[in-house]
Specification:
The protein is of the alpha+beta class and about 240 residues long. About 20% of the residues lie in helices and about 30% in strands. It has two domains: about 90 residues, Pseudouridine synthase I, catalytic domain, N-terminal subdomain (Alpha-Beta Plaits); about 130 residues, 2-Layer Sandwich (Alpha-Beta Plaits), CATH 3.30.70. The protein is elongated.
């Protein structure tokens, strides 16, 4: 057997997330279907992270053990020829047998995209807002989220400590981008962070309320919707 690493992008709109679920269309499920066709046997794949329903990826990393009858350089075309239009394998190579897409990762980077104003052409890949956001207050609030902290109150179901390395907020004439890098993420944690920053930007919360939300002293605002979220890169 050989250990294979692939980099995958996908439009998460029509998927029930990454992880295999009975009776539901998932990214992991479609990749494993393709590998079954290629090798005529069940092959389990491991992703660097489990994206939620509606969340997209530009750089999801996937690893799996495969028979040696097909050289790695042929995998890319073989898999792309057997998966649906909303998934694409960008790169493929053989890696050391100890490599694991999930457990070997040192950090993941997510980007959340916000459109200023509404358009039917943005609805799949941006969270669309009307009205102004106070970007300066959002930048003040994000400073309280950087470092090793318990993010349980910004997540859903999961609990635990994560190390957020950086949060970058940028904007242009039409869009706002929030980029978050951490060693790991709890379920819906990025969307919880974005939801908190949006509430600060709208004036519903003060930047100083960030610590209160993290500690559970103040109720977490609603998480941001999934369509604006992209897994863009995984570092090893």
């Amino acid at each position: 057997m050989q250990n294979i690493k692939i980099i995958v992008e996908y439009d998460g709109t029509d998927f029930s997330g990454w992880q295999v679920q009975p009776g539901k269309r998932t990214v992991q499920g479609e990749l494993e279907k393709a590998l079954r066709i290629i090798f005529n046997k069940k092959i389990r794949v491991t992703g660097s992270g489990r994206t939620d329903t509606g969340v997209h990826a530009l750089g999801q990393v996937v690893s799996f053990a495969a028979p040696k009858q097909i050289p790695p350089e042929e995998f890319k075309n073989a898999i792309n020829g057997n998966i649906p239009y909303d998934i694409f394998v960008k790169d493929c190579k053989r890696v050391h047998e100890d490599f694991n897409a999930r457990f070997s990762a040192s950090s993941r980077i997510y980007r959340y995209q916000i459109a200023k104003g509404k358009s039917v052409f943005n609805r799949r890949y941006f969270f669309q807002i009307e009205g102004e956001l106070n970007i300066n207050d959002m930048k003040k609030a994000k400073k309280e989220l950087i470092g090793e902290k318990d993010f349980s109150y910004l997540a859903t179901k999961d609990r635990g400590i994560c190390y957020v390395k950086r949060i970058k907020i940028s904007e242009d004439k039409n869009n706002i981008f929030i980029e978050v890098e951490a060693n790991r993420f709890l379920r819906r944690m990025v969307r919880g962070i974005v939801g908190l920053l949006l509430s600060v930007g709208k004036g519903d919360l003060k930047p100083s309320d960030t610590k209160k939300v993290l500690s559970g002293m103040k109720r977490r605002p609603p998480v941001a919707p999934p369509q604006g979220l992209f897994l863009i890169k995984v570092k090893y």
